[in-house]
Amino acid sequence: MIKNAQKHDVIIVGAGIIGLSIAHYLQQDGRAVTLIDRKGVAQEASFGNAGAFALADIFPLASPGIMLKAPKWLLDPLGPLSIRPNYLLNIAPFLMRFFRASWPDQYRRSIVAQSALLELAANELDRMRKLPNIGNQVREDGALHLYESDAEFERSRGTWKAREEFGIEFRHVEGFDLQQLQPGLSPKIKRATFIPKWQTVNDPFEFAKSIWNMVQADKGVLIEKGVKHINKGGAVTLDDGTELIANNVIVTAGAWSHKLAAQVGDRIPLESERGYNTTLPADAFDLRRQLIFGEHGFVMTPLSTGIRVGGAVEFAGLEAEPNYKRSEILLNKVKSFLPDLKMENGSQWMGFRPSLPDTLPAIGASKNSDKICYAFGHGHLGLTQCFATAKIVSDVLAKRQQQLDVSPFNPARF
Ligand SMILES: Cc1cc2nc3c(=O)[nH]c(=O)nc-3n(C[C@H](O)[C@H](O)[C@H](O)COP(=O)(O)OP(=O)(O)OC[C@H]3O[C@@H](n4cnc5c(N)ncnc54)[C@H](O)[C@@H]3O)c2cc1C
Predict the structure, then answer these.
(1) Atom of ligand 1 nearest to the CA of 253
(2) How far is the CA of 174 from the centre of ligand 1 (A)?
């Protein structure tokens, strides 16, 4: 052990929504938590996401359908899915795994695993919503999947049938019913599917801060510094050379987590799916609930901080500058669906979704050290799955029986 190292019970590297939720759950088990984050509370993906508890999103991105659409999308450098040409070689191994994960056998396995995790997420969210500081941040006003044509609606039917199998409530709507749910849609949108139980947060950053407030009230500590190194024995070295030692180290560093995992010998093929959005003033449109434009890969959410339009997937790594033309493209597309939308005075943002090729997160102990635990790679569903992940991690640390089969999330599965 390093002499003079500061001793801690649990160190959590990364104070995004996943790290914060785990901190709260571990405190309920009597653990003392220290969060370490170089940017502070929820300043990366957890800051500016679309704010949905997407509990009906059981389908992995790696799907037979996406492999059919991808070539067309990839030809358009500003389309819903793009790869920067100079990143093509770096991303190739990830894409090979992604391709394999889209085959019917693995696809089906991923759906079953994702559904089980989302069921746990729904139960944990119900429980957490009973806490006043969390309950007052979540709305259950449903979401609308919109279709531009009958053909698009017909293409979606299979996914709704599969959701039915997993007990997800929805109803197809059109005409007056649709207008009531969302006035002001372009006449080209004739049909939609309404998911009544879809929930959204008032604002993702405010939501994360509420969890941090609870953690802080329970004597949780935040060290605002970068982590340079971790080792199998639970030693953590900060960027300024400070040495810490913990009984357990949890790596929840979002899209940067694989770099720390590699230091203890765990090679995990994490990539970042960069996403873009614009937040418009609240009076930009009379938006009643989240709208989902599935075939265009973006959503629109009413938040307490404004109206957020965002989505898209760009593979360009962690270093490349944002290309905000993507945010503009999304806004222009939305305008074609909502003619009365006011597009002025928006603020643009780009975030790094931490993603694994099979669309499932890595949650569980390192294969090389039971002191190190991972919880990252939630892709498009980090907010949705934050409490489920925290439940699993707290059960791992307390050596309790898990409530679901956690083998599909094993960090050593690659
Ligand atoms: C456009 C967009 C829309 C989205 N919409 C939704 C949605 O509607 N619903 C949903 O469920 N999910 C959504 N997501 C995904 C969701 O935002 C992420 O899955 C989630 O925020 C990931 O949380 P995290 O805590 O793992 O990572 P992050 O929030 O990225 O946090 C990781 C933290 O680790 C810190 N860190 C990294 N390395 C180090 C280091 N070495 N030392 C110290 N600190 C470090 C970072 O500073 C950061 O604060 C969306 C994402 C994007 C980009």
Answers:
(1) 34
(2) 36
Q: Is 356 in the pocket of ligand 1 (CB under 6 A)?
A: no
The answer on pLDDT for 79 being more than 90 is no
235 touches 247 (CB < 8 A): no
Element spanning 150, H or E:
helix 150-165
- What is the C-alpha to C-alpha distance for residues 405 and 392, in angstroms, rounded to an integer? 10
* 112 C-beta neighbours (distance < 10 Å), count: 13
Give the domain ranges of the chain: 58-101+139-196+270-354
Task: Check pocket membership of 361 for ligand 1, CB cut-off 6 A.
Answer: no
The alpha carbon of 356 and the centre of ligand 1 are apart by a number of angstroms equal to 13
- In this predicted structure, the answer to whether residue 289 has a pLDDT above a threshold of 80 is yes
Continuous segment of H or E residues that includes residue 218: none
pLDDT for the residue numbered 38: 98
Query: Mean pLDDT over residues 283-291, rounded?
Result: 97
How many angstroms separate the CA atoms of 124 and 131, rounded? 12
**Residue 62: exposed, middle, or buried by beta-carbon count in 10 A (0-12, 13-18, 19+)?**
buried
* Mean pLDDT of the residues in the chain: 94
Helices (H), 286-361: 325-337
User: How far, in Å, is the centroid of ligand 1 from the Cα of 165?
Assistant: 30
Residue-level length of the chain: 414
Q: Is the CB of 17 under 6 A from ligand 1?
A: yes
Calpha distance 253→12 (Å, rounded): 9
Give the per-residue pLDDT at 2: 61
Tens digits of per-residue pLDDT, 180-228? 999 999 999 989 999 999 999 999 999 999 999 999 999 999 999 999 9
For the cut 90, the answer to whether the pLDDT of residue 408 exceeds it is yes
The CB of 326 under 6 Å from ligand 1? The reply is no
Q: Which of 18, 36, 49, 356 most suits a substitution to test ligand 1, by most atoms within 8 Å of the C-beta?
A: 49
Q: Ligand 1 pocket, 253 CB below 6 A? A: yes
Third-level CATH fold of 58-101+139-196+270-354: D-Amino Acid Oxidase; Chain A, domain 2 (3.30.9)
CB of residue 51 inside a 6 A radius of ligand 1: yes
Give the integer Cα–Cα distance in Å for 370 and 374: 10
> For ligand 1, atom 12, which residue shows the shortest CA distance?
381
Note the pTM of the prediction, 2 decimals: 0.97
